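Dear colleague,

Following up on yesterday's call, I've attached the two folding results inline so they're easy to grep. Please treat them as preliminary; we haven't cross-checked anything against experimental data yet. The first protein's sequence and structure tokens come first.
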Amino acid sequence: MATPKTVEIHSNELQGIALTPTVPSQISSTTEKPCSPPHHHTTDPGQELLKKSDRIPNILPHGDLAGKPDHCFGLYETPVARSVWAIDTTQRPYLSYLKSISEGWPHITWLADFMEVGTSPLKWKFLVKEDIDERAKRTRVAILDFSEDGEKPTRKDIQSSAALRELFSDHDFNHDPAYARLIIVEDLSRDVIETLGAQYDIDPLFFRSQVSDYLWYKTEDAWVELNDLDHVAAERNFFNIRYMRPRYFTTEKSIDDAKEELGTFNVLRRLEQDLSWRVRQMRKPKGATVGVVRSKTSLWLRRNKPGETGILGILIVDPTLREGYPLWGGPRNLQPCPSMHEKVVPQGPPRTTLFEDVIHYIRNMSKEDIKEIKVQPRALGITISTLVATEWKTVVSYIITGLTQIEWELEHEDYRDSIGLEGLLDRLHPLRRLIPVYHAMVDETLNTILNATKIHTSTAAGIHLRKLNKDFESILDDIKRLQIRTQNIIGLATTIISMEENARAMKMNKNLVRVTYLAVVFAPMAFVSSFFSMTPNLKDLTQTIWVYFAVTVPLTILCLGLANHRRVVKLVKWLSCDGPRVKRKEKN
């Protein structure tokens, strides 16, 4: 294990950050600008960080309340002493293993920190011991055992870390299943990672890639997770699938409550809203909106050692957000509609949590797919891949709906709300930013679990996986078309804005022309009147009034002629030519 290092920080910097919440709705996932950590101080960082902030167990990192994490973590500066949250690893061999390899594999350090804190290490300052202990013990596991005859797999639920340890230490529990076994885990916790990792010697990257949801990183982020080379990732025995889950929120408060609920997850998950910040500020009152939750799922397949014959897999799924509603009621039932002549209607998915839906569909796999798990272990990922594909289809449909509405408002000015054309552009910018990210996520899935070169099409399960590959390729094509369509709409909106601005400018120019004519008319009059006003005898004005008009009228005509000299020249040429005679001949 590497020796903990220290960092020098100013105590008044930490004490000056406002971290006390006023209402839960203030919790936000908005990213703050980084602050540079000070360099000159002799205070021990461990003692300084022991002055924790107020308890906010459900806070999301990188928000307004959480403040800037850069004063605690730095990739180039000396990092904070991890001794402030270090725990005893005597009875935790997997955690001890992670710490021992952190020097040579520094990207694993963040997983060790996650296990010690119980959640994202960025939340450590806002948690008390009770919060950390509760998160560390959190367990929701289901074990599905398959039989070679293709019958419905059996299910065993485990709701505590103590029960999981007890089961795994039971001599009657065979860790090498007779045929196949899938362990399904909701969320992640210290005890679950420790028990599974130590028992099956699992690659730490399997858990590391599941704990965060970052789409991009700043150059100072110590929690950066760099991608593997494609050929290296293709040889691994685990797969990580990133995707989005859309939800409908009726009010702004519902969105804030959803963000707070996401803070209860151990893994870091955040919400992307479909409208830009500027549009949300312009909408009064703030109404319903749609958000997509950054989601991940991971599947690990054991490489059998000598003496091991069964197929063993571990599937990790995210907790399901309770706040809000699944967009359009959620994906349709994946099973075909039963015949009207069937006496017993099959039970549909519970639609309560993703955890339960996955178990429902796996237990209803066809006998053919179950029988071929031995030949094609990736068949254990058919269900979750199908559910992810349905979520992507919903996201694509929603983007199409949004773009169609924007196009309609561009074509019909009466349907635009108070946000105007600039507001429409603001609604497009999040899509312009996120659609390429969606493209990368789908492409990753095609290159990992649905990699066509790794699928044996000679089996029914392989044919099913190849069909899923085609589905994801279709989704990828849809996203490419949406990306082009978004850029075209942005260009169209920009053009319309320019045209409307030009029309307004021309209208203003016409008004300026009228004002110019008035100035031309009254300027000679004002000049002459001021000239004649120099006489002290008012009786003389009655004698000179005719002189006023005799001078001002020709002078005004002369000024108008000079202002429109081009038209005057054309008129003179026309009069001097045969223009009038041609018109008289036409009349005759």
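Below is the second protein, in the same order (sequence, then structure):
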Amino acid sequence: MNGKKGSYEIDIPTTTKAKQLESCIKSGGDGGGSPSFKGWMWSVWEFAKEDSNRVKFSLKVGLAVLLVSLLILFRAPYEVFGTNIIWSILTVAIMFEYTVGATFNRGFNRALGSVLAGILGIAIAQLALNAGRIAEPYIIGVSIFLIGTITSFMKLWPPLVQYEYGFRVILFTYCLIIVSGYRMGNPIRTSMDRLYSIALGGIVAVLVNVLVFPIWAGEQLHKELVKSFDSVADSLEECVRKYLQDDSSDYAEFSKNVVDEFPDEPAYRRCRKTLNSSANLESLAIAAKWEPPHGNFRHFLYPWSEYVKVGAVLRYCAYEVMALHGVLHSEIQAPYNLRVTFQSEITEATRQAAELVRCLGKDISSMKQSVKASLLKNVHSSTERLQYAIDLHSYLLTCHSDPPPDPSPSSNSKLLSLSLSLSRAVSYNFSDHDHQLNDPPLPLPLPPPLVPVPVLAESYHEMMRKQMKRLHSWPSREVDAFEEEGGGGHSLPRMKALDSTAALSLATFTSLLIEFVARLDHLVEAVDQLAVMAKFNH
């Protein structure tokens, strides 16, 4: 408090502490600023422990590269393929992706681009040979320019963006085939040998990725979506719990560390990852379309695109959670005794909403379609109770004053008797007006004792002057306090929030919670649509 009743004072810091935690990631106590090898190894171990598929993927890539390298290390296969086996190693290194679907997608682009580049290379090489030695280099140069221009333009066309890697393969494969064929004199033989080597590398990459610890993009997409549901529910409960609790501690200083880190809120960080998962879900859905039926996804044409739609609706709900988090860490906060007034209604609405979100995530995880009408009804009922409580105690959210007078019978009778006596006095005065004119004048009564009238705090012009100063100042603050500090010297202004403004923070929080519940209806519809198209069990 700033010493004046009815207002709060918020200190806006002049500077923030830059990178306070930066020294924590350095080596322990040496002061040199270089990361220790032990700390680096521990971070690598934590990264591998977080997802074991990362280690499996690395081992599979090493195995695939080893298998194609054996064709060079042993004499018999080397005599068959020669130095063209390098193309197999290059194909494995480029084509091997994290998931099976992405590998199939990359392999299709690689195969189609290599075949088209080989056909174009052979056709242009034969045309150049028939044109003669003088025109041959000109034809080859013009063809390279045209192929480079066309492929670079086509890969930017939106319908063909997913085949961007294929256009790159066409460009560099064509250039290598046409240039080497020009110097070696046999473009057809060169093209066929390199196509065989590329095909061999692609087959090795696909077999290793499918047969050795396969990582399916469909399963990854399924798990990521279920994890997002849990993150949103946990973050909602965590945010509301921290908002309603009274820890009797000051809010942390507003700085970059507070905004970006929030070390005491792990669910918030997971929810923030959910908001940034759009590109990841879309890439997994594209890769999953290339995968054959596997695991729990045993039928063809599985609706992977519906997973992306459900994720979009879930992010639509997560935006409200992030808005609630912003109110939680805002500078202007409602008093604790005001938050406690609606604590039971807010807690119940939050619990019901989080339970519904987790139920939807469990339905997707188990691939079963459950009846959610009762849960949805409970969510709506708890939210309606919260709205009724806000409507009943709305006077608390506008100003800190006493509640409106209770229209009880006793108070109504008092008001009625007062109005009747006042009307009788007025009628009596008007009825005796004529008699009073004929009577001798009576001595004038003494005026009532003067009651000290409060002097106006400021004139109209003074009020307008302060209002204009308030409008032309940023951030907004009380003018009296600003003038007390010396009329706008070098000291920074201090903003003051009235009690009514602080109370509106609670109204904002509850309205965001109600909006989150309203958006759950769309989420339930999206999950039901996915269950129908994916043929979930009942």
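For the second protein, one point worth flagging: The chain has a mean pLDDT of 75.

Best wishes,
A.L.
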